[in-house]
Structure formats: structure tokens, C-alpha cells
Amino acid sequence: MNQGAPENGKSGRLAAVVMAVLAFLAGLAGAGAFFYFYWTDGSTAAMGTSTAVAMAGMGAGLVVWARGLMPGEEVSSKREALPSSEEEKEQFRESFVAGEHRIGRRRLLGLLAGGVLGLLALDSVSLLRSMGKSPLPALYRTAWTKGARLVTFDGRPVTAAVQKGDILTVFPEGQTDSITSQTLLLRVDEAKLRLPPGRESWTPMGFIAFSKICTHAGCPVAQYEKSVNILLCPCHQSSFDILSGALPVGGPAGRPLPQLPLYVDPAGFIRAQGDFSSHPGPGFWSYKS
Amino acid sequence: MISRLARWFDDRLGAASLTRLTINKVFPDHWSFMLGEIALFSLVILVGTGIFLAMFFNASETKTVYEGSYQALRGVEMSAAYQSTLNISFDVPAGLLVRQIHHWAALVFIGAIALHLMRIFFTGAYRRPREINWLIGLTLLLLGMFNGFTGYSVPDDLLSGTGLRIAYSVMLSVPFIGDWLAFIFFGGNAPSQVTISRLYGMHIVVPFLILALVSLHLLVLVRQKHTNCPGAGRSNESIVGSRLWPTYAAKSLGLFFFVFAALAALGGLVQINPVWLYGPFNAAAVSSGSQPDWYVLWLEGVLRLFPSLDFHVGGHLVPGIFLPGVLMPLVFFGVLYSWPFLEASVTGDRGLHHVLEPPCLRPLRTAIGTGVLTFFLILTIAGGQDVLAVAAGDSVTSVRTALRVLVLAGPVVAAGLAYFACRLVRSGRRAAA
């Protein structure tokens, strides 16, 4: 590397040397500082900055060295033709055909070997069975049963003391780990309800419950716009109209949130009349509404 | 010493002539040729930081109670995966720095690949004989995005849990096999007991595939040599640039250190994915205003903008998210994969091309590329539609309507502008010539 870059004059090369020396010194300082910060449990910012200084010093030193002191002339180099010559192709063809000929005379062996490979391929694909059981029952099942008490995430039963404007995430009693059973409990004006026919008895005292899993992409429908009686999914902004039975009224969701039929027992606990009005969560091929 | 070592290897491999060819390889000097190198260097940093993180990460959903030094979560029940991520962030010396460098490096890796892809596209570098590297490069982009997603998901925090739930729903929506696909991939209703360990297994295995494909990408590159920007002396017969040894090697190594410097500065100074603020995953909770990493925002955006279109085929349901979430990406990448062949069959140009085309010499290709880029840019913005609505003080509904109009009209307008601008430049050049 002593010859230097011919296009740079003597003073240019001297300037490059000075700059490269300074850059490498900065790199040394950064690397040393990292060592100090690391062993004294310094902050992430101090360790990151000192690493950055070390690396930048190293990079700048190298680039200055390369540009100012190493040969930088443009060179031209020939591109060889990529395809093989006709002669090479012919030689390959001969070798291959000679080998192929010997295999070809033992057709039965070839067929048998192919058969083994084919069956082995089938075997390996069937290993997918180990990955999980048939998914369909789990996709349809929730833990809601007739008479199940509504409880909060910590297992406390919900009573009719819930007020208008409140929103609770509830589960069937004893099943607070059941992801598909998560449900929103709200209280609304019974007189304003416009539910589909057949659901008249599902909302005692204005208590109304819907699956919390968005029918679009499975996020929890976590936002409640009290003033307009809308449930909003924070992931893709689908909105559902509570009073009409959680029909989708905006955004990408195409199906209503399934409703959970409720009743209030004589002791004042809120219970489910049974499972949701339809399957909760995002749709799939064999979904039955 | 070095010459003795060199002789030792040459005695056993006879590598002198091959190595001479390699160090004499001619590299074109153009800034846009560094994009692929930036991706390569980010990958090196990803592997290094990843090995460090793997020493401490525990991909298990076993419930434990946190007792580490982050006060706000002490005594909280969480998965071992989340707990070990907190330990990396608070109790392993330099753990947070390495974790943040790893995350930033992933974002830069995918970003550099995407920019590299645009350079290749707009200059026609994928034409014969480089179709093979086009296919490998696209596969690397997909694998990079996939590995970014699995890496983002394994800490088992509330934010990544939301992303997993969406990925699960998208997979579930595939006709006929969706339910099986989702169960095979996630091992149950996402997230289940095995989801995190499966994702982590893939997060460790896929990089080997990436490294193998990168090696192949580089082998093909060395065999075919670089393309050249047009100019004096650049032709299908010769390549102009500087030799690898020593100048280009020094510059390239310098670039590696600059990339490392930038990532170290980001990792040290710019907080990323602070999982301790999101809390452990809880199926019934969601962190609002949650955003995925940048390279998934377009998918998030198209899920938000696409209208509710559940429909039935022979009594079976095709959920609304299938079209934007599965079909649109499949069509997009299908077209990208076949682009070199599509273009050759449309133009009839099957000749050898070692010299790049300035984008404006091909108005139609540039217009199509600009339109597609605009489409994805608007979808990326739509991925933050709720944030946008809050910032603009507007309702989500009106922001959504505006974005729906933009995503359809924007690409057409941008493509038209690009087309006519290119025509102008081209005729200007022809007049000057």
C-alpha cells in the first residue's frame, strides 16, 4: 500500500493519513469507553454510543485510507460468455448418456427405488398428524353452558349491581382461561333495544352480553363508546352497534358479535342461558352460522 | 507467517488461482450497489446478536411469577418467555443494548432488501442472465419478513400476542385447509402452549436457510459478475469498476463498520419494542394504538381498509380477510416472482443484458413500479389509521373513507405522472443526443 493513490498529490495523501489517524483514534477511544461502561454497569445509552463511536471511527478510518491512499483507478475486465462451449456441452451429454444407459437397463430396480422414495415422501407428509388434533371441535366449542355464572377474570361472580355505562369482561365460572369464552357484559336501556326476533328474553334488566372476540381478525373488542352505544375493535377499527345486537356498522368486520343469552337468578347473580347465538371469533371454511 | 499459512492451505486446496480471481473481481462504484451490502452486514449483526440473545431466552409458556429487577412487574404472573425477555432487558449486562440492536438490525435488514429490490427493478437488472438471483432475492425478502415476525412474536408480550392473533385469523381464513393450517402452525387456538416454542424453533432454523440462500446469491453474483450503470466502456463484453483487493475490500469493510455504528447508536439511544410497558400476554386484553414493525404495516393497512366481504362458496364461508390478507399478497408476490419472465414475453426481449437501463428509458416499467410503490405506501400509512385519526382530530370513519379513495386513486395518479415524466426526460435525451 506504499505506492499511494497516484491521483492524489503528496499533500492529499498527507491529509488522508492525518484524517485516518484521527478516525482510528476516535475508534480506540470509543472501544475503550465501551469497556469502561460495560464493566461499571453503565447505561444502555452510554454503551450504545461508545460502540457507535468505536465502529464509526473504524469505518471512517478504513474509508479514508481506501480513498486517499489505496489505488483507486477504474479498471475494465472482460466478461466471459456464461454458456458452456459446444464442446463442453457435448462432453457432458456423452458422460450423462453413458451413465443413463446403464441405469436404463435395470428398469425394475429403478421403479422399485422410485416407489420406496414415493412412499417415504407420503410418510413424511403424514407426520403433519403429530402437529395437532382435528381443529374443528376446538373451533366451535366455548365453555358457556346453561346456568353458568358470569365471573370476572379473577373468578368473582357478577351480580345485578352492574350499572349502566359499565363494561366488564366476563368468563364462565371456573373457566377464566377459556380464550374463546371471553365475553363483554354491558347494561343498556331495555326500551332502546332493537334485537333480532327471538332474543327478547336474553337481556334481563338491560344486561346484554357479546363475545369479546372480533369476527374480523380475532382481536379483543376492547373499546366502548358509551354515548353512541358502539363497541370498537382497536386493531382494525371495526365497530358494532350494541342496541341492534352488535351488528357491524363500520370497518372491515362482516358478521355481528355473537350474543350470549342471560338471566338473573333469585340470588341476584347473572347467568348464561346457554352458548353464544353463533360461533365466536374469525370465520373459517366450515363455519356454520 | 501469513505466507506460510497461505502455503499450507494451497498445498491442500490448490486455491491460489481461485483466490486470485476473487480478489481481482471488479466492483462497480455506484452508491446504489451498497444496498445489498447493507442487508448483508445487517444479517451478520443479526446472527451475532441473535446468538447472544439465544443464551438467555427461554421459549416456554410455563407460568412463573416475576421476581427480577423491573419493579413495576414484580409479583406478576407471566410466561417464562416473557420473563426471560425481561431478564435480558434488565438483568443481563448489555442485554437491552444487544436486544435493541437485534431488533433495529432486523428492521434495517428488511428495509435494505426492499430498497435493493427497487434498485434492481427500476434499472432492469433482473433481465437475462440474472433471473435466478431475482428469484433468490425475493425468497430472501419473504424469509426475512417471516423471521422478523417470529422474532417479534416470541417475547409473548401483549403487543406481539395481538399480532399473533391476527396472523392466526388470516391463516384460518384460507378456504378448505385454513383450520388445519392454523392448527398445524400454531398448535391450537393461538396462542397455545406450544405456539411460542414452535415460533422460536422456526426463528432459529430459518436463518440457516437465509444464510444458505445468501451464499447462493453471492456465488451466482461472482459467476455472472455485477451489472454496470450505462457509460463509457460499459458493455455486455466488459465490466468497469475497482478491484476487490485492496481498495474495494477496505471500503466495504468500512461500510460494515458504519452499518454497525448506526445500529449500535439506534440500539443504544432509540428505544424499540419496550415489552415491559405492554405487559404479559393476556387473551382478553389488547394494547390500543398498537403498531407492528414497519414491514407488516401494509398488511395491517389492507386489513383495515378492505370492506367487509364475507361470502359463501358452495355453502362454505370465505371470511372477509381472505382476499386482502392472503390473496392480495399471494398475487403480488406471484407477479413479482414471474416479472422477469412476464416482461420478456411481453417485450420479446430475451437478449443478454449486463448494462442497466436508466429508469426513464422504460416509462411503462417505471410507471408500474411507481404505482405499486404508491399503493404499498398508502397501505402502510393506513396501518396507522387510528393514530392518524387521533392526530388529525378526525373520526376514524372519515379517515378510512379518505384512505380508501387514496389507495385506489393514488397509484393511478402516481403511475400516470411517472409515465409522462419519463416520456419527457426520454425525449429530452433523444433530442440532446
Biggest beta-sheet profile of chain A: 5 strands, antiparallel
Q: What distance lies between the first and last C-alpha atoms of chain B, to the nearest angstrom?
A: 57 Å
Most extensive chain-chain interface = A-B, 77 and 94 residues
Shape of chain B: globular
| Succession of helices and strands of chain A | HHEHHHEEEEEEEEEEE
CATH topology of the largest domain in chain B: Cytochrome Bc1 Complex, Chain C
Show the helix and strand layout.
The complex is a heterodimer of chains A (289) and B (433).
Chain A: H1 10-39, H2 44-69, E1 75-78, H3 86-104, H4 107-126, H5 136-140, E2 150-151, E3 167-172, E4 183-187, E5 207-211, E6 223-225, E7 230-232, E8 239-241, E9 247-250, E10 259-260, E11 262-264, E12 270-272
Antiparallel strand pairs in A: 2-3, 3-4, 4-5, 5-10, 6-7, 7-8, 8-9, 11-12
Helix pairs in contact in A: 1-2
Chain B: H1 2-13, H2 16-23, E1 26-27, H3 34-54, E2 63-65, E3 77-79, H4 80-90, H5 95-122, H6 131-153, H7 158-172, H8 178-186, H9 195-224, E4 238-243, H10 244-269, H11 275-278, H12 297-305, E5 311-313, E6 316-318, H13 322-347, H14 363-382, H15 385-392, H16 396-432
Antiparallel strand pairs in B: 1-4, 2-3, 5-6
Helix pairs in contact in B: 3-5, 3-10, 4-5, 5-6, 5-10, 6-9, 6-13, 7-8, 12-14, 14-16, 15-16
